[in-house]
Amino acid sequence: MASLFLSHFSLLRGVYKCFKSGRLKCDHFLLFWWEHDIKISAQEFMSREIDNLIEQLSWNGTEEQQRQAIDALVAQIPHRELYKLMRPGEVKDTWQNAAEVIARYNRKFGQQEILGMFEWLQDINWPGASVIFKKLNSMSRQQISAPLEMAMCQAKHTNDQEWMEQLVKIRDNNEI
Q1: How many CA atoms lie within 13 A of 75 on its CB side?
Q2: Are residues 56 and 90 in the same domain?
Q3: pLDDT, tens digit, for every residue of 87-107?
Q4: Is residue 56 domain-shared with residue 16, that is, in the same domain?
C-alpha cells in the first residue's frame, strides 16, 4: 500500500508541475486526480512538496538543485509552512539555504517566525545565522520588538551570554 501511495505521489508531483507550468489546464488536473482515485488533500500534497524542497536545500546536492529549491520555496511556501525553515531538521546541511529562503521571503512574518529567527542566533556560527542576523536587522522596530523581548527573556533565563550579545546588537541597531 505504501509503495502504491508513493508511486501515486511521484506521478501526482509530475502532473502538478505540469499544471503549475501552464502545460496542463485545471480541469485536466482535477480529472487526473479523480481518475487515479488519489486520496490526498491539496494541503497535504503541498506540505509534502515543501518537505521535498527543503531536503533539496542540502549543501550535499548540486548548486543547481539548491538554487532551484531556494527559488521554488521563495515563490511557493505558504505562511503556515514557514516554521519548517526555522533551523530545519537535526542535520545542519539545509540551514544555510533555508536562511537564504527566509532572507528572500518578501511577505510578512508572524511573531512566531520572528522568534524562530531570533533563536537561530543562539550560536552565530550556525549555518545561516549571519543571513538571519542581516534579515532581522532589516526589519522594522515595530515588527521585531515583541519577539525580541521574548528572546531576550529566554536568553537571560538560560544565562546564554553569546545569544544575548547578538540580541543586544539587533536591539541597538533598531533603537528599541
Answers
A1: 9
A2: yes
A3: 877 789 999 999 999 999 988
A4: no
